[in-house]
Design goal:
six-stranded antiparallel β-sheet; 933 residues; five-stranded antiparallel β-sheet; single chain
């Protein structure tokens, strides 16, 4: 097109479209322009210029400067240019206020993720079965004395569970794969799960439906609790009407539609099933009528939200007279609607929803006949709030059925620091007691004062529901499968027995622990300060601490590969060596790589994970008879990393290999990264960070608590990440307690109990314990230092026997912090460091109360002995993180580059056993051990 033609076209265009420059009443005005007017101004630079018409030059603006937008001489201020320092302070304040608002439970705008595996079912007055977010099944059982937790997980081959049922004294469970299992008693009178796959008539099925006809997706127990109705993945309606022998009936599906959810079974009408299709239509199924399937339609031309959400409904009788029946359902738009049968006529009624709320589930509750004015429904929103909808009985003449009455909605909020799970129905345990699954994996009980909570068992009397009684929330803890702190019950006699709780002498293991100097203002912390997931658009303002390469090398310089047989060492120059045993001989082997190594971050199933000088995550593993390198950072979504978990295994404990096994790492930008390593299907996942800080280091990965990664933020506070719910939580911490950013170590005396501790150093070099017990919850305990002139360096650990912890002092000595055999008091023991005089390794084992004496005299004697041997030898212990080489062995690095090993002797005492020379150490003493390579 020529330039003249182009100009002519533009003139015609402007004449025909007068709204091009000014947005008039014409409908032509671009929508993009309207959106731009609603955009919030964002400053991204510190320098701006203005064109001066008189001098015809650009002049730099002096900040602050108001930005004005003018349309048709209508000028409005849209922003202000300020100095970036002021902007940052302002942003930090706004972020802090938003966090405070979210933690106080006032933020109702963040939509929660859908927890698809969660379900609740009441088996009896003393038993509630829960399917957790992790896909595990556990039972909350009242043993007559207290609530206990019993595991009922499906076998590993069955996969994850999504629901459980009880019918005719038989317990069934549905798996995520769509398979049904029955619980039976095995040969040893132990419950076992056996396959209970549906057997149906395939003649009525199409060829495309045969593969998914027996894959179940959803199940509802009938009103008489004698049958179960299921919908399959192919949209069929199946009925299980007999267990022994199994009796299955295939009811098919509506013509031209499917069964996506079962809304009601025999409650609206006996033997009538109401279903919802995936397109949101309501169907009625009656096997005794023709046609069997009937569609409930809306009035043509209706503007109401008519598409139904595939979910369980709730039926109430007698609201509008003795013969009236109401089926309450939810729409896909999050509104409450009613399908009412009154005087043999069906009618749709829209009840709406609370203002700015999206409803996702209905919790069925029994209707109290003594409630004279109203019935109640309990509904959960997508933001985790629980609302009660009070339905007036017998509305008077002229009442507007289709109008929402705002006074009918009662907001019960949610428990402190937790929200109700989105899209999951709660359970009425007893009148006045409702249990809701929480988004973080725990349970919340909404109950009347005095008749609910963790300490209240099932009551046998009758409680009348009164409108004047206000409900309160209690949080019920969940087991370790969900990342929480509820212990499983035991078969031994006592209050935690799985069958009958008996008053017995309490286990006072924790009660007799010496309460060591707690910080002023410290208190037990039973709840967590929870954060919602950080928004991707949130510009987090926080102090940025550069993590030095030396810090990484210090904490991940040594790593065990095979317990008692092989470990790796990285030299100061980045060389990688392996010290291994073959045919009763120890030797060093060098692993060559083009780049210098900075740390060994973990191992899994024979594969070693390392980080090089460019922060790439590498795998060193054996392929057939050859050793090879794999670059994980170069994989899809791979990241550069600077740190990992402290250790891979607990001494004496074998890890269970699962399909969910993963290695957690810290990126150079301070994010928590998850690398799935199971089955060699390497997959990266960004777990982000807590909203108030980035991550400095990982304290513990799934040792103290399964499915939980404890981290220290760059603000020196403790956080945890739940890999099941993918939620971050901040633990209570005194503002005076400033933690070191170095990794910590976990100590768990027994794998059968959740009692245990995290040990972390404070910023000023003192030992800090974060202890959990079922009686006191979480508590901070300060252990201090082993001496007045000594502070602790490096990272604490390793731990042994559930009551012993090794630490390195600033004086180069090894100290043991141990709990006495009677569990009454923690003590210090000094093991000094290994030094050689006449080829004999000596040790010092001073205990309390003389631990604080001055060691200068003995240290000077050692220096004099070494001066004449080799000036390059310094047997004092370096700040390098030691490693647990075996159940009875720990390896330390000496300041001269050699290694020292301590072993547990037959008397139960630790002693220095040998010094191991290394290929890079300049100390020639005992160097023959390094020459074997």
């Amino acid at each position: 097109m020529s330039r003249l033609s182009l100009i002519f076209f533009m003139l015609v265009f402007l004449l025909l479209n007068p709204c091009t420059h000014t947005c008039c009443s014409s409908t032509w005005c671009p929508q993009d322009y309207i959106k731009q007017r609603n955009k919030q101004f964002e400053q991204r630079s510190n320098k701006f210029w203005e064109f001066d018409g008189q001098s015809k030059t650009w002049v730099e603006l002096k900040l602050p400067f108001d930005v004005v937008s003018c349309v048709n001489d209508d000028c409005t201020k849209v922003g202000s240019l300020e100095k970036m320092i002021k902007i940052k302070k302002k942003t930090e304040t706004e972020i802090g206020e938003s966090f405070k608002k979210m933690n106080s439970g006032k933020d109702s705008t963040v939509s929660l993720p859908l927890r698809k595996r969660v379900s609740l079912v009441k088996m009896s007055e003393a038993s509630i079965w829960v399917t957790g977010v992790s896909g595990s099944i556990y039972e909350r059982f009242w043993n007559g004395l207290q609530w206990v937790i019993a595991p009922h997980d499906l076998p590993l081959s069955a996969g994850f569970a999504i629901a459980s049922f009880i019918v005719n004294q038989t317990i069934l469970a549905l798996s995520d794969a769509g398979n049904l299992y029955q619980m039976q008693l095995g040969e040893n009178s132990q419950p076992v799960w056996v396959d209970f796959r549906p057997v149906i008539d395939y003649d009525r099925l199409k060829e495309t439906e045969e593969d998914t006809a027996t894959k179940l997706r959803y199940g509802v127990i009938s009103h008489d609790r004698e049958r179960i109705y299921f919908c399959t993945r192919s949209g069929l309606l199946l009925e299980l009407c007999g267990i022994q022998p199994p009796s299955w009936i295939n009811h098919g599906k509506p013509p031209g539609a499917n069964v996506a959810a079962i809304a009601d079974v025999g409650t609206v009408k006996p033997d009538i099933i109401f279903t919802v299709s995936s397109t949101g239509d309501l169907y009625e199924y009656d096997i005794s009528s023709k046609p069997m399937w009937k569609k409930h339609i809306w009035i043509e031309g209706s503007t109401d939200d008519t598409s139904l959400m595939p979910s369980l409904g709730f039926t109430v009788h007698g609201i509008y007279g003795a013969q009236s029946t109401s089926l309450f359902l939810l729409t896909k738009g999050g509104k409450l609607i009613e399908r009412r049968l009154h005087q043999r006529k069906w009618k749709w009624v829209v009840h709406g929803s609370p203002k700015h709320q999206f409803l996702t589930s209905i919790t069925p509750v029994s209707q109290d006949e003594l409630m004279e004015k109203s019935h109640s429904l309990f509904l959960t929103t997508e933001t985790g709030f629980v609302f009660e909808y009070q339905i007036p009985k017998h509305p008077g003449p002229g009442a507007a059925d289709n109008k929402q009455i705002s006074e009918n909605w009662v907001n019960h909020m949610h428990p402190p620091h937790a929200k109700a799970a989105k899209g999951v129905a709660g359970l009425e345990f007893q009148v006045g007691r409702l249990i809701f699954p929480l988004d973080d994996g725990r349970l919340g009980e909404l109950h009347f004062p005095g008749i609910g909570g963790e300490e209240s068992g099932p009551y046998l009397g009758y409680i009348r529901r009164k409108p004047t009684i206000k409900h309160i929330w209690s949080i019920l803890d969940a087991p370790e499968t969900e990342g929480w702190n509820a212990d499983y019950c035991t078969e031994s006699r006592g209050p935690s027995n799985c069958i009958i709780g008996l008053k017995d002498e309490a286990d006072d293991t924790d009660a007799t622990r010496s309460v060591i100097r707690r910080r002023k203002g410290n208190r037990a912390q039973h709840n967590y300060l929870s954060f919602v997931e950080a928004r991707a658009s949130l510009n987090l303002v926080t102090e940025d601490h550069n993590i030095q390469d030396q810090w990484v090398n210090t904490n991940f310089r040594l790593r065990v590969m095979f317990r008692g047989l092989s470990f790796f060492l990285i030299s100061d120059g980045g060389l990688l060596f392996e010290y291994l045993s073959a045919e009763n001989m120890w030797f060093w082997m060098r692993h060559e790589h083009s780049k210098a190594m900075k740390g060994v971050l973990g191992n899994y199933n024979g594969s070693l994970f390392l980080v090089d000088e460019q922060k790439n995550l590498l795998i060193r593993e054996r392929s057939s008879t050859e050793l090879q390198w794999i670059n994980c950072t170069a994989m899809k979504r791979g990241r550069h990393v600077i740190g990992g978990p402290p250790w891979d295994v607990v001494p004496g404990k074998n890890l269970k290999v699962t399909a969910e096994d993963a290695l957690f790492l810290v990126s150079k930008s301070g994010r928590l990264l998850q690398l799935t390593v199971a089955l060699r299907k390497f997959k990266w996942k960004d777990c982000r960070y807590p909203q108030t800080t980035k991550i400095a280091s990982i304290v513990d990965q799934e040792v103290l608590r399964g499915n939980i990664v404890f981290v220290v933020g760059r603000n020196s506070r403790l956080y945890q990440y739940n890999k099941v719910t993918e939620l971050w939580h901040e633990h209570y911490q005194s503002q005076h307690l400033v933690l070191s950013r170095a990794p910590g170590t976990a100590m768990r005396p027994s794998s059968s109990l959740l009692t245990g501790s995290l040990f972390i150093l404070s910023e000023d070099g003192k030992l800090i314990e974060y202890h959990w017990s079922s009686t006191d919850g979480w508590n901070w305990i300060e252990h201090g230092t082993p001496g007045i002139s000594v502070v602790l360096v490096g990272s604490p650990g390793p731990s042994f026997l559930g009551n012993q912890l090794f630490l390195v002092g600033s004086d180069g000595r090894v100290y043991l912090r141990y709990l006495e055999s009677d569990q009454s008091m923690w003590k210090w023991k000094d093991y000094s460091f290994p030094y050689i005089t006449g080829q004999t390794i000596k040790k010092s084992g001073k205990e309390d109360p003389n631990i604080n004496e001055d060691f200068s005299r003995s240290s000077q004697k050692i220096k004099e002995d070494l001066h004449g041997v080799n000036r390059n030898c310094d047997p004092k212990i370096a700040a390098t993180r030691p490693i647990p080489f075996a159940e009875d062995s720990v390896i330390f690095e000496l300041r001269d580059g050699r290694l020292g090993e301590m072993k547990l002797n037959e008397d139960g005492e630790w002693a220095w056993s040998r010094i191991i020379g290394t290929p890079t150490s300049l100390c020639i003493e005992n160097y023959w051990t390094a020459m074997a390579s």
